[in-house]
Write a structure and sequence with these properties.
The protein is of the alpha+beta class. The protein has 5 helices and 5 strands; from the N terminus they run E-E-H-E-E-E-H-H-H-H.
């Protein structure tokens, strides 16, 4: 039995310890935000946050995740109450096919957690490990800048 902390909830899984986190999230927990892309930790479609850092979930076995905090796209908000980053991506229409977007959003969230006033260059550099084949990078960058403004405004309002 493996215990994981996913989106603030303790989850117990009866799974092989070598199971990649991506598979456990999608198949065992029904969290389908992270996508299977390459399966080799090269495209970023499966990115989640582990202890606040972006990680390719397709190459991380669940056996190494005890006492670690995992955040998926579903942990950023909901359709009824989207988080600032989700709202900004919707408003900027940053998704085309949408396949890379969950990974992009989690990587962007890690950046915004560390720096609520990133430059466009900092955003581009931070998102660089995640691939988008549709060409929506400009809208993705705009969405991250918008989310940063939302977060700064919320922080200033206290």
């Amino acid at each position: 039995m493996i215990t994981l902390n996913v989106n603030g909830r303790v989850q117990r899984l009866d799974a092989d310890p070598d199971t990649p986190l991506l598979y456990a999230l999608r198949e065992d927990l029904g969290l389908n935000g992270a996508k299977y892309g390459c399966g080799l930790g090269q495209c970023g479609a499966c990115t989640v946050l582990i202890d606040g850092r972006p990680v390719f979930s397709c190459v991380v076995p669940i056996s190494v995740l005890a006492n670690r905090r995992i955040v998926t796209l579903e942990g950023l908000g909901s359709p009824e109450a989207p988080g600032p980053l989700q709202r900004a991506f919707i408003e900027e229409q940053a998704a085309q096919c949408g396949y890379c977007i969950p990974g992009m959003m989690l990587r962007a969230q890690a950046l915004l957690n560390a720096n609520q006033n990133p430059t466009e260059l900092e955003i581009r550099r931070h998102l660089q490990p995640n691939l988008c084949r549709c060409g929506t990078q400009m809208r993705i960058v705009k969405a991250v800048l918008r989310a940063a403004r939302y977060m700064r405004t919320a922080a200033a309002a206290g």
